[in-house]
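User: I've been trying to design a sequence by hand for this structure and keep getting stuck. Would you show me what you'd pick, starting by listing the structure so we're on the same page?

Assistant: Good idea, let's start from the same input. This is the structure you sent:
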């Protein structure tokens, strides 16, 4: 069975907040805030990979469309 990782994102102009939830241990959610820049996206993705060890194919992203604020990570 494929394990999934749920990543909820709240975007704002300068930052985005991300919460990562492992389906096998939903009580152990991880939260962090990142700069809403290309560099912040790199930091975010590296952190998720390091903390979970799961392949990118098992990650499920969810975030509201906030116009320009969500474009940086969406295009990244």
């Amino acid at each position: 069975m494929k394990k999934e990782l749920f990543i909820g994102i709240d975007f704002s102009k300068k930052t985005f907040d991300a919460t990562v939830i492992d389906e096998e241990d939903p009580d152990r959610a991880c939260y962090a805030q990142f700069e809403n820049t290309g560099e912040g996206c790199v930091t975010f993705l590296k952190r998720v990979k390091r903390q979970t060890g799961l392949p990118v194919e098992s990650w499920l992203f969810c975030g509201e469309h906030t116009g320009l604020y969500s474009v940086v990570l969406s295009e990244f």
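That's my pick for every position. To get oriented when you compare it with your attempt: The radius of gyration is 12 Å. The longest strand covers residues 25-35.
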